[in-house]
Amino acid sequence: MDSHHNLAAGGGGRSEGFLSWFAERTRMSGCHVDRAPLTELRGWAFDEATGNLGHESGRFFVVEGLHVRTSYGAVREWSQPIINQPEIGILGLLVKMVDGVPHCLVQAKMEPGDLNTMQLSPIVQATRSNYAGVHRGSRVKYLEYFTRPPAGQVLVDDDLHVSDEHRWLSLPEIRRLLRIDGLVNTDTRTVLSCLPAFFFSDVGSALTEEGMAAALARSVNGQGTPHHGTVDVLSWFTSAKSRHELAVRRVPLRGLPGWRGPGEEITHEDGRHFSIVGVTVRANHREAAEWDQPLLHPQGCGLVAFVVKNVDGVAHLLVHARFQAGLLDAMEMGPTVQCNPENHPGGPPIFLDYVLGVSAERILYDTVLAEEGGRFHHSQNRYLLVEADEDFPLEVPVDFCWVTAHQLTTLLRHGYYVNVEARSLLTCLHSLW
């Protein structure tokens, strides 16, 4: 179950066909993204009173200030810019069975912040402002499949017209593509993490193997006895949320302590963390052919990792009850480690040194994947699944808990339990087969 960064692991002609199609879609995109001063973005302006950066329509999102005080973590108080987008969007894949194998309809799509220009995306990836036509562009293709049918309806449409930028891919093919740096985008990974368990029936074949392969298969399929029952996991999570004091309030962007701006860019005074930058965009095959917008540009590549331990024949993921200032419910279950190592001069987060120091044979998955390019500029994280050695303790700090993959997938049916990075890693775990 070693990690690969190419398609040699079983693509054959089908993979070559995909790569030819994807290269052609990249060539046809006509994508041009150029940096531009925030003060010159068309349709965007700083509010005279607050300094907040918003769109002339009053839609999409606003860049504003946030002040945080908390009893959680090493830093107890800070201020920062944040992208405030209260809209609920739609991420959607169409799925059909072909000879008993699930196939997903995906698209090659560019986002202005993507480092690799094009990524493999869901067929619908749109905020409410986008599909309401605020950009005055064309309609979002296939949107009706996700807005018109009643909840839970099974869609069967053999006459579905598939445009050149869309393609049916089998689920095993998409799993293989997850081993390629920067190819499968974060929204596709998020949707795939929500697939029901029966889509992973082939994982059961790993039960004939030994060691971690079988332990992972039991973890995904819900077999064996978890170290903590789901009720106990929820009790742990509720306790973690109640244990910390969190006070988050929106403040004006102008005069934000520790930050330079607003102006051509918004940057931190010591050059760390992130900056807010502007871009101007031209692209074919998008609902709008050109537009300007701000993006959040992180400094350096982040690291996202689950420590995985075989506990009585069942693989468990070490979950961290993680507070993030922009979350609607303040805290969600995240990976064991989620950080930008360059942003911790005072000392590394717990378990970071362990994850970075494991031997190569204990690395189950290792790929650099991009984050959401519609709001983030050249944002990448190194995603890791690492096998714990025998000495790694079952007794862990109070904000951590051992959870099986099946338990975590079950919690995805409910909002605000599992964060985006943990969802991505769950999808990456499924790519091990």
Automatic annotation (TrEMBL):
Record-linked Gene3D superfamilies: EvaA sugar 2,3-dehydratase subunit
Pfam families: Hexose_dehydrat
InterPro entries: EvaA-like, EvaA-like_sf
Domain dTDP-4-dehydro-6-deoxy-alpha-D-glucopyranose 2,3-dehydratase: 17-157, 231-429
Name recorded for this polypeptide: NDP-hexose 2,3-dehydratase family protein
Organism this protein belongs to: Nonomuraea purpurea
Lineage: Bacteria, Bacillati, Actinomycetota, Actinomycetes, Streptosporangiales
